[in-house]
Amino acid sequence: MTAFLSSINYNAWIVPALLLLPAIGALGIGAHALLTAKDPAEKRWREVRILAFAFFMVEALLSLGLWWSIDPAASGWQALVDLPWIPQWGVRFTVGLDGIAMVLVLLTTLLMPLAVLGSWTSIRTKPHAYYANLLVLTVGMLGAFVSLDLVLFYVMWEIGLVPMYLIIGIWGGERRLYAAIKFFVYTMIGSLLMLVAILYLGSEASRVGGAPNFSYDFILNNVRLDPTTTLWLFGAFALAFAVKVPMFPFHTWLPDAHVEAPTAGSVILAAIMLKMGTFGFIRFALPLFPEAAMNPAVRTFVIVLAVVGIVYGALVAMVQPDFKKLVAYSSVSHLGFVMLGIFALTTESMQGALVVNVAHGISTGALFLLVGMIYERRHTRMIEDYGGIAKVVPIFATILTIVSLSSIGVPGTNGFIGEFLVLVGSFKTQPVAAVIAATAVIFAAAYLLWALQRIIYNSLSKPENEGIKDLNWREIGLLVPLVAAIIWIGVYPKPLLEKTEPAARRLVTYVEASVGKTPVTASNTAR
Amino acid sequence: MMNPAMTFEGAHPLAATIARLVWLLPLLPLLGFLINGALAMLGAAKIGPADPSEGHHSEGHGNGHGGVHGHEHDDAHDHADHGHPPRHKFAGIVSLVGPGVLVAAFLLASAIFFAMRGVEMEHPYVLTLFSWMPVGDLNLNATILLDPLSMTMVMVVTGVGMLIHIFSVGYMQDDPGYPRYFAYLNLFVFFMLILVLGGSYPLLFVGWEGVGLCSYLLIGFWFSEKANADAGKKAFIVNRIGDFGFLVAMFLMFANLGTLDILGVADKAKDLPMGGAVATAIALFLFLGCTGKSAQIPLYTWLPDAMAGPTPVSALIHAATMVTAGVYLVARASGVFSMAPVAQLTVAAVGALTAFFAATIGLKQWDIKKVLAYSTVSQLGYMFVGVGVGAYVAGIFHLATHAFFKALLFLGSGSVIYAMHKAYHATHNHDDAQDMRNMGGLRHHMPITFCLMWIATLAIAGIPLFSGFFSKDEILAAVFARTHGSTLAEASLLGIPGSTVLFIVYGLGLVSALMTAIYMTRMMLYTFHGPNRTGEAERPHLAEAPWVMTGPLVVLGILAAFGGWLNVPALLGAIGPVGGLEHWLEPVVGENALRTTLGEAAHLSHSTELVLVGTAIAIAVAGIAFAVWRLKPAALVAKKDAPAAEGIARVLENKYFVDEGYDAAIVQPTVAVSRNVLWKGFDAGVIDGLFVNGSALLARAFGWMGSQLQTGHLGTYAWVLLIGVLTILGAFTYR
Amino acid sequence: MLAEALALSAVLFAIGVIGVLTRRNAIIIFMCVELMLNAVNLSFVALSTLYGASGQVFVVFTMTVAAAEAAVGLAIIIAIFRHVKTVNLQNINLLKG
Amino acid sequence: MTFDLANPSQLMQALGPDLLLIVGAMALMLWAAWRPESDEHQRAVGVASLALIVATIGLTIWYAARGLSSGPGIIAVDNFRWAANIVCLLGAFGAIALGLEYNVRERIRPAESHVLVLFATAGMMMLAAARDLMIVFLGVELMSVAVYVLAGLNRRSNKAAEGSLKYFLLGAFATAFLLYGIALIFGSTGSTNLTEIGQRIVEGNYVAHPMALVGTALLLIGFGFKVAAAPFHMWAPDVYEGAPTPITAFMATAVKAAAFTTFIRVWLEALPGMGEAWFAPVWWLAAVAMFVGNTVALSQRNLKRLLAYSSIAHSGYLLVAVATGTLAGSAAFLFYIVAYTLASFGAFAVVIAVGSEGDGNNELSDYEGLWHVRPGLAAAMSVFMLSLMGFPIFGGVGFFGKWYLLMAAIEAPRPLTTLAVVLVLTSVISAGYYLNVVRVMFMKARPEGAITPVRAGPLTRGVVFATAVVILVLGLVPSRVIGWSRASIPRAPVAQTASADLPK
Lengths: 527, 735, 97, 504
Known about the structure:
The structure holds 4 protein chains of 4 kinds.
Chain A: H1 2-7, H2 10-35, H3 41-64, H4 66-69, E1 78-86, E2 91-97, H5 99-118, H6 127-146, H7 150-159, H8 161-171, H9 176-209, H10 216-222, H11 227-244, H12 253-260, H13 263-288, H14 290-294, H15 296-318, H16 323-344, H17 347-378, H18 394-408, H19 414-429, H20 431-456, H21 463-466, H22 473-491, H23 494-513
Antiparallel strand pairs in A: 1-2
Helix pairs in contact in A: 2-3, 2-6, 3-5, 3-6, 5-6, 5-13, 5-17, 5-23, 6-7, 6-8, 6-13, 7-9, 8-9, 9-11, 9-12, 11-13, 12-13, 12-16, 13-16, 13-17, 15-16, 15-20, 16-17, 16-19, 16-20, 17-18, 17-19, 17-22, 17-23, 18-20, 18-22, 19-20, 19-22
Chain C: H1 2-22, H2 26-51, H3 54-84
Helix pairs in contact in C: 1-2, 2-3
Chain D: E1 2-3, H1 8-14, H2 16-34, H3 39-65, E2 69-70, H4 79-106, H5 112-129, H6 133-151, H7 158-189, H8 194-204, H9 210-226, H10 235-242, H11 245-270, H12 275-298, H13 303-324, H14 327-354, H15 370-373, H16 375-389, H17 397-411, H18 417-443, H19 458-476, H20 479-487
Parallel strand pairs in D: 1-2
Helix pairs in contact in D: 2-3, 2-5, 3-4, 3-5, 4-5, 4-11, 4-14, 5-6, 5-11, 6-7, 6-11, 7-9, 7-10, 9-12, 10-11, 10-13, 11-13, 11-14, 12-13, 12-18, 13-14, 13-17, 13-18, 14-16, 14-17, 14-19, 14-20, 16-18, 16-19, 17-19
């Protein structure tokens, strides 16, 4: 397989191709909209669905090659492409991958077709704009994972905002307007402060290197700042990523955005967009400002926020009447684990954080898909409107149970591997935080099983629930790969762990090594 | 995934024997689960229309019924009735696959057992299946650890499991969820085997939570009844609290000992300081896990509610196998426990306390399954006393014998309930089929069950020559032997010197043995003796359960009667091989047991041993006699017109209101705090209200003020302009 | 001599400013603005004694510009008068908020 | 080729493009007055003036290509001037192009409206060229008087008349301050030529000199008013709302650009010595303008007033470029003004396309669900909104405009990091109202009674889509314009030794 890939020089063109294809897709859909303006709406809707799905499938298949072509152990960037973009400001279009980015890129490309399938029948108004937005969103997300130039990263980071804003705002639920603007402004405040920080770094780099330069590697190797400025810059970056993760005090946009977004929107938001925040910490906040990350006050502060987020998210999830909001708050709890894993700075906890990243993406993505499916049938998200539907929709109930168990982190599912590694790893450096975080194991079981029971078990008392139809072949076909992934990562996570191990280890050693040291020589730097 | 990369311990003698196929043991029940699960799904599922929203469930009560629940009458306890509904269309295949898989597993287990007996084993046989979590210096492999201890557990699990599967074929035959039941039961056995065969603590943990999951699914099997679903959820969450303890123990192991392999931890634990903080912490957290899983104080409340599940489930999971996982864990981690006498004392103390506490509640329970449930909690207390004081062999011995007679008791009560249901079913009477006050005088109608139940009662009461007597007596003797000349004696628990603690434990043990005899005899008297209170019309319908159910009862009866043969004490050397189990488990736990008794094996002088055995027999006989003398089954009255109990009886009947206490002290406050303080107060109020919407409001307010200033009058504009002029002039001049 | 001239022009300028602020009639406000412009002319002339004729050239420029401005300004005032029949700025406040 | 400005014929050559425009404008004025008022006549004069503008742009580009420079004198000959000219001429072109169809709809028959635009543009070009305070004053007056009249063009609407009256009175009032400032600067330095003033201030260390201080303050007030910065902005919303929309667009872009051009040239060439004095006031002026402009815009319901406050906020952003006091700042200003002009013109063109006769249909409620009725216009409007907000890719070149400003601010000798943070935070507030427009258009259903806006004329739609496309294309590949704006920075007269440090 690797031979075939290197024969077609796969690594040279794959990353730009992955970015370009959805853009072309969006234009294609725009063209389709114009060309078929006259046809009946029903026909256009069916065509554009298939067109969009085709684009996403091609993107997914194209990206599968990455699994073999990216060698995680190699120290340099893989599939590197470096083109000049704005020479005057030293801004270049540099994209590249390492183990961590590759896994997240695959998570994105493989989840998008499922998200499109998830909203196959629910989106009927203005489908062209909807699918075009999804495609542009993919460009933004992939771009954020692959870009190695600070300006390019910022641009890609912001591209993701407008399509998601429109998706929530146009095709969302009742309070979509409030949720959309809240999502947008929340993220924008964080990212604009990051913009100023990037500029500051750029000016430092141009002072050090002569010509203006925003390349990640250059700044990583050559820019050394005094502690206070590093703290300020780290604060700006960390705020932007903390809003996106979301970390504890900055999370209030998540429940609104998730509840009001259409199914595909909340699936993508939960499964991929939240990972841009954690990825930001791993790629930018930690390596660029290791002293700030290692500064005990900052580190304890972030860990306290993470642990509070874990427990707080779980507790508040327990009392949510709306199932989607419950899942949203559970995301806050799960991503608290990721942040704990990152800032505990041991290889196991970092690996655990990456596994939780992927596992949460799959489990919560599946949960939102399921909620979407039942919403399409019953048009209510309130838990008490259901009850005893396991009798009426057994397939749905079974899959919902499996996915909920993976979200709780029952061993044998992906959730357990991630949480176990994070806790084992972080216990070594942050014992108290790890133990408190471990209590979330109990709360997770409490809130999810309680909700599960009120939905599928208990007596089938309400007449409306008796008429619900079970999942159709499309929906089952959609969920089977996700359930398979849940079990596969749970039972045999080795291949996934091997992909991210080298990069995680290098990051940890780099951050620990560079505390209070003279500028690190070019040779042993991590990327 | 099972077969690649299996590295054989080349040198190990067992590798050549059939033990090589040990990985097949868990695989068989897994196959059973997959087949039965598929059959259950096929039977139930009806694929929905391509477009879910069209035809928006117009017909309210239309043909939307899936096959699963047949016709809509979900009975409370455990038996579909209203005439004979058509048996599930795949019932035939499932009845073959379900128990068949277990029989195969038992045969393979026996083969491996005999292979093991034939070979001299210095160290356990470790079989690495595949590399599970190669992360940093964790490097965890999925390994199977086969040694006498895990072999014993495997034999118990597969043996008793097989019998209970066969019993369930009869018991659950009319239930619409038949394939689903067997799927869950097989999955349970799979996870139990993973638990006992796991070579590393995380793999053991997989089994540990897996069985918790299956008990959740099986307790809430008749989920359409809210009480059952609640019981299932409660079981899972309380288990999760225990699992939290297990997790923290694993973190401590990894942080301090650097490994999570069972063997690795065992030999690294040796060089830990005796009674040091690390060993004690690990041991205590492990024990927290055990209290959750094996229903000890304070996490026992889920077991009595777990009776909401089908009776065979109660027999298998909540009597014989799952609940004993805690005892197995303490035995398996004996390396760590023996280094932490304080922890051992805690285990023994909690065990004894639970034994006594549960026994008192057992005295006043009316539901036959609740009596047995509290009896199980009490007997588990005994086992923990055994392994707590370092007498691991005694603990495991009692575990095995308890599995036999408790399974027999549960299945016996299952036959009784089956018969009662059939009777009530015939007369459409909706009375409680499990309440002893509605039974009485069943010995005429169910003679075989009656005799077998008596055997089990005598065994559990500790009447000599029955299995219970040997194992219980051995535990009490072990406790007594360790009151002096053992690491426990020197250590102290909460200021109380070790020996006094052990004496208290011994005393509690005796008292609970007495109470056990009393409540078991009480149960027998009210169920089988005295006048029948079921009712005139139902009486003719009371009959013995079919052979498929009574067959396993007989086998269990034999095992309960002669179980003691497994580990005959030296005193009564005549009956059989002396210390069979002792010798069998010696390589695994021998060294750690010796460590607790400071080198030489705990021994009692011949005379003290005789005295102990005497007192034990006296206690058992006194208990039975007291019950027969005091309790008047004739005075009993049927449940519907029974007077409400008051005073002590009421407190015991309502199990000291512990459930209500937990609910009020922990559950309600947490829910209230999270709803009002965290969610509405902080999330919506502070963060959203104050910061997010607040700042938006502030900006809008400034904006509004600005637009009000824009009055349209040129005068105002000129004034503002002048203010601007003056400020700038000021700024320039007074720099 | 220069200082007094500059002081006078400053005073005149201030009077013009106060006139613009206090009066409500558009034409009078315009006249006050013209007064301010002429105050500046005065200071230009005064300064040209110091730096030669270029100051006075500037005055010629300002005068012509002021004239042009007056023409256009009055035309605008007439236009507004045609609409609201008044030049009192109190009730010309259609555009606000 | 260096012009010796003392020699009159060389001075004439240096003023080539300006003269072409003024002479052309006068000829057109005669032709306009010659024929009776009618729509065809107004259109003919309009087209003729467009042709004249194109010719002037051609000449300016030819002048710029020849790399001319000049000795000391009353006018400057450098790329900064040619760049500013091109921006103002493009603004005029846009105003007249939109005006052609707008006037027909609003029945504004006098053909002189286009000629007045030409005169205003002539004033702007004079401002761009001015290296002498006298020329600055003349340019300001020529431009302002023309724009006072343009504001009141629509004789039939009393709003227009009121707007132009307010603009006139306050404009004159502020010009008086400007003039007084010039007088005091002349008084303290003895010259009105920017380079001489600059030298004298630096040599004589005039920063403590009271008359120079007051003079600079008054200059700042005069320019502050012209660019509608915060404390002096009160006239802008009313005038913008009252004036005909093409003229509002013209005022928001070209007039502001010209005012800033001369503001920057005076500040860079004449008053760098006074840096100590004017840094804090300009810093605070920028901050207040950004804050007031953005917050008050939040509560606006009429789109023209909303865009007026948005232009006040943008004056604040541009003041940041002035506050840097570096040549990089002036390059950033030029780049930003190009982006801002494109976006504003596009936005106003959409307001015209959606608006109805008698300046109706400009309320936000009229834009509800526009996407369902006019998807093209809605999409273009959202591009303009996002560009004004400074959003990357979707907002195209707007983002790089803000980026360049921020970079100039952070890399200034006295780094303005806090001002950069203020800029960034106030642009978050701006997201409130810019996104509100997008939200109203996309996320609200079209109210039943709402009349579908009549299809706009080809020129208006042309302006809308041309600006949108240019914004998006430049958003992807801005390096062309960056290079161009970095090259065109004010250059001291050749005679002096080239001292200006090269901008990065």
